[in-house]
From TrEMBL:
UniProt entry tagged with the keyword Manganese: no
Protein name: Acyl-CoA dehydrogenase
Organism: Caballeronia arationis
Molecular function GO terms recorded: acyl-CoA dehydrogenase activity; flavin adenine dinucleotide binding
Stored Gene3D superfamilies: Acyl-CoA dehydrogenase/oxidase, N-terminal domain, Butyryl-CoA Dehydrogenase, subunit A, domain 2, Butyryl-CoA Dehydrogenase, subunit A, domain 3
Length: 398
């Protein structure tokens, strides 16, 4: 990855908070009901579109606000602090924008149309998840069949399609094995009104229920030639477009889980300041040494998550050197965020006590939401493997 990246615009340099406290309060007030009813966050989406959140990182020249990645992540954290499902699902839209932006900043206009569509208010979703595919973008169980005009037909099943009820464009990948000796992975986009796809309502999960990450069946879905972004050799991808996906999705995930952890910490601390303890003469739990120790442990964890996510995002935005293992840095930030957030939420329940077990307590919901972090691809095992291989200089050679 080149260290030389041109800024999109200077307009965002002095940007202030995009999402108002009043908006976040309204979004936060709906989170419990979305979770309880396993309902998509339609009202949140409407409000966030009106607040320009979905086009915040789109360059100004394409109708966006021109926020940098670090600026965007701070807003994602604030959103996740109140509504984790909403923030997590919208990260899927934002990472497509981020991938297109990465190319655009390098002078590559092959995905510029994504920026234009996002700037015009269109919603993008990710069709990458597949049952049994633990190779991610290096392989696919979805068949991509080329057509004479340069487009592709896609057939197969995608899982975990967050934003299933709302997307306008679905980014997918599939395998073109026309030549079995040289299979290719095709990255392309299908439009909702083009047909050849259907949503199967399978989403009834432990946490992050409002994402409505239902299954998508591709049954002759067509991506025309101009919406085919890349055709790459099967195997570990080496391409700036895929790099751009990783550079957007991994810090975004880190920001979401940092927001969850920060909310759990704040809720628990307030609880400790209010709950009284008969064992210490009616003083609050804030005066108990074990509570103080748990709060300190959580605070240290939070500080390290924030610092690493911020650092990784800033380095990605300004550009890593050619010989730096940038993927190891990005994966480390994501993995530390999801692992650390789990530790913070567990400590928060300990601090808040048995009341947090109630289905009406916010910490009970956060306890469920935070557990999804281990499963976002690449999962914990794969992330550690890639980080180790990157530092050892054997990534793509084993």
């Amino acid at each position: 990855m080149s260290a030389v990246l041109e800024p999109v615009s200077a307009s965002a340099a002095g940007a202030t908070r995009l999402l108002s406290d009043a908006l976040l309060d309204a979004i936060g007030s709906r989170a419990a009901a979305y979770d309880r009813e396993n309902q998509f966050f339609s009202e949140d989406l409407r409000d966030l579109q009106e607040a320009d959140f979905l086009r915040a990182s789109v360059p100004v020249e394409f109708g966006g606000l021109g926020l940098s990645l670090p600026q965007l992540l701070r807003e994602q954290t604030r959103l996740a602090y109140r509504a984790p499902s909403t923030a997590l699902a919208l990260n899927m839209h934002l990472y497509w924008v981020g991938a297109a932006l990465h190319l655009y900043r390098r002078g590559d206009k092959s995905a510029q149309w994504i920026l234009e569509e996002a700037g015009a208010g269109k919603v993008f979703a990710a069709g990458h998840g597949e049952p049994g595919n633990d190779l991610g973008l290096a392989w696919s169980s979805v068949k991509a069949t080329p057509s004479a005009d340069g487009g592709y037909r896609f057939d197969g099943r995608k899982i975990f399609t967050s934003l299933a009820p709302a997307w306008d464009w679905l980014g997918v990948h599939g395998i073109d094995d026309t030549d079995p000796q040289a299979p290719k992975i095709v990255h392309a986009f299908i439009q909702r009104d083009s047909g050849g796809h259907r949503t199967v309502k399978t989403w009834d999960a432990l946490g992050l229920r409002g994402t409505r990450s239902d299954d998508t069946w591709l049954e002759g879905a067509i991506a025309p030639r101009e919406r085919v972004i890349r055709v790459l050799p099967a195997g570990i991808p080496d391409d700036p477009f895929v790099d751009g996906i990783l550079g957007a999705v991994l810090p975004g995930l880190g920001a979401v889980y940092y927001g969850i952890a920060k909310r759990a910490f704040d809720v628990a601390v307030e609880s400790a300041k209010e709950r009284s303890s008969a064992a210490i003469g009616g003083k609050t739990y804030a005066y108990k040494p074990l509570t103080q120790q748990a709060v300190a442990q959580a605070a240290i964890e939070l500080a390290s998550i924030e610092a690493l996510v911020e650092r990784a995002a800033q380095r990605w935005w300004t550009g890593y050197g050619e010989d730096e293992p940038w993927i190891a840095h990005l994966l480390a930030a994501k993995q530390h965020a999801v692992d650390g957030a789990l530790r913070v939420v567990n400590l928060a329940l300990k601090i808040a006590g048995a009341a947090s077990l109630s289905r009406h307590h916010e910490l009970e919901r956060l306890y469920r939401d935070v557990r999804a972090g281990a499963f976002h691809p690449p999962n914990a095992d794969a992330a550690h493997e890639v980080i180790g291989q990157a530092w050892l200089g054997v990534l793509g050679k084993v």
